[in-house]
Amino acid sequence: MSDKPQYQRLALLYSQSDRARKAAKELCEKIDFVPTEEADAVIALGGDGTMLDALHEMLDTGRIIPVFGLNLGTVGFLMNRYHGANGLRERLAEAKPMAVRPLCMEAVTQNGETQSFYAVNEVSLLRETRQTAKIEISVNGKVRIPELAGDGILLSTPVGSTAYNLSANGPILPLDSRMLALTPISPFRPRRWKGAILPEKSKVTFRVREPAKRPVAVVGDQKEVRDVAEVHVEIACDKEMTLLFDPGHALDERIVAEQFAV
Length: 262
Known about the structure:
By secondary structure, the chain is α+β, with helices and mostly antiparallel strands. It is built from 5 helices and 17 strands. The strands form 2 sheets. Strands 6, 7, 8, 9, 10, 11, 12, 13, 14, 15 and 16 form an 11-stranded antiparallel beta sheet that branches. Helix 1 (about 20-30) links the parallel strand 1 and strand 2. About 40% of the residues are buried.
């Protein structure tokens, strides 16, 4: 008897693009989907943004189940190829699970208000005006960069390391590395600092220098808090999520392949 998970009750989430809606209609003709709160797994139709929406919906509700993404978007780095409705359950039975852990971000504004969000890809601090941002960076309570001057800085998970992090010349992290990428965005000082790779268990604190004169916003995936004074970020180990991939198309292989892309 197979010890692989059996995903009998499936929920369907899809983007509002014409391609995704057409595919959703096709799948609904073959499969009786159930609401997300009753499902064993979620089928997500769209691009990487749809996958992030699905993951954030589960983080918000607190019910976390595996997600099998089907690419009907542009990049689809987190998705599998869409081959129609036929054979979908067989693909799910053979899918390879990949565990991902989101970042938990706590932002304190200049007014003293505190807001907390989860980020699957990265947490980014960005200057709000023409004024260069000045940010102090601490890791596990020790100040490592007294003052980073530039456009900002980001902390990325392995899943997000090929997104904004890569565009900012940050390193690509293998999914099983249990590491985080700390990457400056257009740094002016220290000019030669290229960032750091940190253990996943690290707790990172960003303090904005001269926040009134040099306002900074923080963005956790799609959610933004403006005029922040301090931001604390660490991995939310209790919110581990599972992405499902076809054999041979798993995320860890894609991350390796991305490093050889030309």
